[in-house]
Amino acid sequence: MRIKPLPPWPAAELAVMTETELHSAARVRVEQAWQRCCEVCPTLPAPNVMFNLRGASAGQAHLGRGGLRFNPVLLRENRTAFFEEIIPHEMAHWLVFHLDNGPRLKPHGREWKTVMRDLFGLAPNVTHQFDIQQAQPAPHRYQCDCQFHRFTSRRHALVVNGRRYRCRHCAKTLVYRPETNL
User: Fold this and answer.
1) Is 90 assigned a catalytic role?
2) CB atoms within 10 A of CB 45
3) Of 31, 84, 85, 90, which one is the catalytic site residue?
4) In this structure, which of 13, 34, 56, 164 has its CB flanked by the most CB atoms within 10 Å?
């Protein structure tokens, strides 16, 4: 296996791309990563590439849908890191899944770590360190005895339907406190 990262994508070029251009460039990067994977697994199918992932996840090898899903907000905010780390990370999942016994292997197990290190020349980091404020808005404000908490619309809907949450610090039940514009 090769221990050389994919060629760097010029950061200045990434910085000025429109969203459409950025998505096209990401597809090119997926193609580059796929070509590298095909060197060790020639029968690896090419993944579909989708930009419909929401929330805190940057990417996902969505094997049921036959492709890779990426978070367009986090891509826009973290362009270089996506091209250097996230796309190879997800392609490593894609490759491992298509190996013998792939569906039975741990998502970030030994095989995935080996692909990250030996094929892409990257540290096998499981999570990203991106600021997710823009990707995961939490407009619903809750309060306990010690602080305010922000909930996503999905979690707020669970509360409306009867679910209760407690603060991890003071153990009090969180109460909805909508913001008022004075």
Assistant:
1) yes
2) 12
3) 90
4) 34
